[in-house]
Amino acid sequence: MGIFTKEIGPVFLKETGSAQEYIGKLEALRNKAEGELKDKIEKQITVAQYGMFGENNIAFELKNSGMDMYILHDIFLEYGDLSAQIDYIVVTRKRIYVLECKNLIGNIEVDNAGNFIRSFAVSGRKIKEGIYSPITQNERHLNVIKLLRKESKSNFIAKKMFENGFANTYKSLIVLANPKTVLYDKYAKKEVKEKIIRADQLIRKIKEMDAQVTDYTFSNKDMLETAEFYLAANRPNQSDYARKYEELIAEMEKVSDRQEAVSAEKPVDITQDVLVTKLKEFRTNQSRLEKMKPYYIFNDAQMNELISKHPRTKEELLNVSGFGSKKAEKYGDGILKILNE
Hints:
Strand content: 15-25%
Number of strands: 10
Strand order of the largest sheet: 1-2-3-4-8-10
Radius of gyration: 25 Å
Structural class: alpha/beta
C-alpha cells in the first residue's frame, strides 16, 4: 500500500441479506398455520436461521479483518439466461474474491478426482454420500461476473485486457461456515485444496493470496468503483427469498428422511456401540485362535465400513474394503451373524 493511500478498513456496502425478511414471512405464515403445515414452516424457519448463522460467521471474520476492503453480501446477478446468487463479493486492494458459504451438516472429504463426499451419523450409522461440487457452482458465478463486467468495458482493448487478467484478479473461495465440520482434503488436487477453507481461516487466506500480487495495487477509487458496479447490477431474486435456502432445506429433509428410514429398518436394541463391541470380540477371539494380530482379521476402518455398509450376504461382504473371496468365506458367517442379529 502506498504511503499516500488512505486506509478505509472493511466497509460493507451491502450487509443485509434476504434471510431475515424470508424468516419474517415464514413466521407470519406460521402464526396462521396448523398441524403438519405449521411443523413444515417451523422446519424451514430453523433451516433459514441455520443458514443465516453460517453467513454471520463469515461477516464477523470480514468485519474484524483490519483490511481495506469493500464487501457485498447476498448479491443476485443476471446475464441473459444466466444467473448467480452470490453469498459475498469482497474487493481488496489486490483482488476480488467471490465467496460461496457452505454451512454443511457432517464432515466433508474431497478426493483426488475433485469429488465432494459428505459423511454424517444417522441413528448410530455412518452415512456417506456425494454432494454437488461447490467449486463448480462458484465457477458458474464467476462466469456471470466475467460476462457482466466485460460488457461494461468501453472498447475492444479494455475488454481484452479485462479478459486476460480476469483469472488472476477474480478468485473463488469455498468457505465452510459450520464450525463443527471437519474437512478431509489430503488427497485433493492442489488447485482444489487451495479453494476450500474454514471460516476461521478466511482472513489469513485472503492476506496470503493478496501478498502474491506485487505488480499493482487498487486505489480507493478503483475498489469503490468495482464494488459499486456489482451493487448496481444486483437484482431482486425473481424466485423469491426461498431460492437461496432450497439446497439447505433439501439437505435437512434428506437427513430427516434417512433418519426415518434407518429407524424403520434397524432394530432398536442394536446400536453402533453394541456392534463395535461384538465385532471387536469376534476379531480378538479369532486372532487368538489363529495366533495373529487382530487387525489382520479386519482393522478399525474396515470395521466401521462393515457397520456402515451392513452387508447381509457374503456377496455383499465383498464390497467392504479388504474383504476378498477368501476372507469373506473364512469369516463371513461369524461377521454376518453379528450384523444381522
